[in-house]
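Folded chain entry —
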Amino acid sequence: SSQQSLHHLLPLCTTLVAPCSRAASFTSRAEGRNWERRRDVEQVYLRCSEGSIEWMYPTGALIVNLRPNTSPASFKHLTVCIKPFKDSAGANIYLEKTGELKLLVRDGDRSPRKVYCFGYDQGGLFVEATPQQDISRKITGFQYELMSKGIASDLHTVSGELGDIAPCRPCSDTEVLLAVCTSDFVIRGSIQDVTNEEEEQESIIHVGVSRLYRQKSKVFQLTGESGNWRGQIKTLLECGVRPGDGDFLFTGRMHFGEARLGCAPRFRDFQRMYKEAKDKGLNPCEIGPD
């Protein structure tokens, strides 16, 4: 089944697709002359699972070819997400397939939700410079990530071809138990405070950590002389998260360097569902619930 294929794909993506920490920078060679579509289109080939593109003084166009170091048979299971830099300007970003262009990001777009996702097999990226009336410095740039479609569908920030997922719906017992096994971070903690960012349409959850089960990146760290673990998790403003009493089991994914909230049941509810699954021998993985 497709679900079984996805599980077999995940180790392949994790081990063979190396992340990039370096940005790829390009300066157009077409400055000072008129652009001709056939002459002034540069191709860029990237084999990393994540990274960034920065194009200085954009003129002409770039074709960005993402070529992950995986089997071509796995491409249909991949999702591409891009996040334009906050000050990106000077070009439109299109999804291109067999010569047809579909606009993804318009030059100067400052919409709050700046993550755009599409299936890898739906086309590549075509970045086209827009005519400029002034000579001020322009830089077009964006981050990109390649991920399994199963992982992408868990993220609340995805948009575009994937469609928007109902982000604030409570997780089922099965979803919680799977999230514990597959999430980038799993912690027990309490909500210390919530900061709402109206412009970004996001909420930042300030979490006090009482037990750290797992984290992929150092989002949660020891702070102060007391040695308490703290960190921040982002979710959509529309979810209406507020400070409250009691502990939760927070799970989620890292997305463009930020912790995004996944399933987050109250800890006592997690203890119940974990014990019930363990008694029936249905635990997808082992984790100490206490």
Notes: Helices lie at 2-16, 149-154, 173-182, 267-279. The radius of gyration is 21 Å. The first strand starts at residue 23 and ends at 27.
